Amino acid sequence: MNVLHATPYYAPAYAFGGVVRAVEGMATTLATRGHNVSVLTTDALSQTERYTGALETVENGVRVLRSRNLSVWLRGRANLSTPFGMRQIARDLITWADVIHCHEFRTAENLLVTPLAAKQHKPLVLSPHGTLTTSTGRGILKVWWDRLLSPAVARRFHSVIGLTTAELNDVKSLWAQFGAHAEFAVVPNGVDPDAFHQTTGDNTFRAQWGIGEREKVVLFLGRLHIRKGVDVLIKAFKAANLPDSRLVIAGPDEGMLPVITPMLDERIIVTGYLDSEARRAALAAADLFALPATGEGLSMAVLEAMATGLPVLISPGCNLPEVATYTAGSIVEPQVEPLKQALQSMLGDEKRLSEMGTQARQLVLERFTWARVAEQLEDVYRVLCYDSLG
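Above: the chain's sequence. Below: its structure in token form.
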């Protein structure tokens, strides 16, 4: 099957965002399973930086074609692509493709790709990646986008994939407002469990940041954005007053660094952006992963932490009730007092913490590997391709 993924970002070795890692996982796994996979994207590396290499490459068996963004400023300020020359590239790729899979909803790429695909009667799939609701940011832009552009785009999609049942309910509600109809499915994010495993005896990260071998490490790994709850986590960590413990805050700033800086003390480390290798080293050094976020789709960072064998302390907004089912960690409200109590309880019982870590990895192996995700994607694609032929 020829599969085309259309996405604003695709820079696996560089990008921090979970959507990029999710698209990379889908694309590369489908390629290893014998599909011909291409990715249509832009030259955006981050909110402010461009990709400067060849515009057409092959990465891990996936053909990647990039168009230049006209405005880096719009990319950074409004998270909006301005792809130059993408229409011609898209036309040729759509002719080649059996199915087109678009990532995120309110994008310039979808305005270009979906009418071309509809004209050629090609099946269109959408993965919103938890970005549909206004609670995830850019609320005013989303409202106006939906008034002017979204209904026509939504009606072109034959299938919409939610990461969780909660996201799928959001999709169905919005599609009803747009007067659009589609097939709906739940397909989660995944990870490669072989790429994330606890590296015993590896003290590289601890040595780099001056963390003692016996100190307990609580790791926050994500963008420093208000909805990630990093400020609440810092307050809870300080209130817990745990002996021989450190809190590591890792990730690029998206507005919260000036807020949290006055809260820092000698027990709290802020690393800034970490590339993929450094992220794995941070996970290997940690004893507990914490993400008290709201408005998550299905956090790649949490899945990667569990694949590493880490117990997790998360909020209901992370949409992973399976953590409670598998006893792979704790789910508490993103507030100081419940987070403080959970930190004290989890880090105060090493045996229980270790058992939770074992269960966390087992949860990933049973439900959240890319191989399992690829099987579910193939089911969605086959039905659409069969219907288009019939």
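The chain is about 45% helix and 20% strand.
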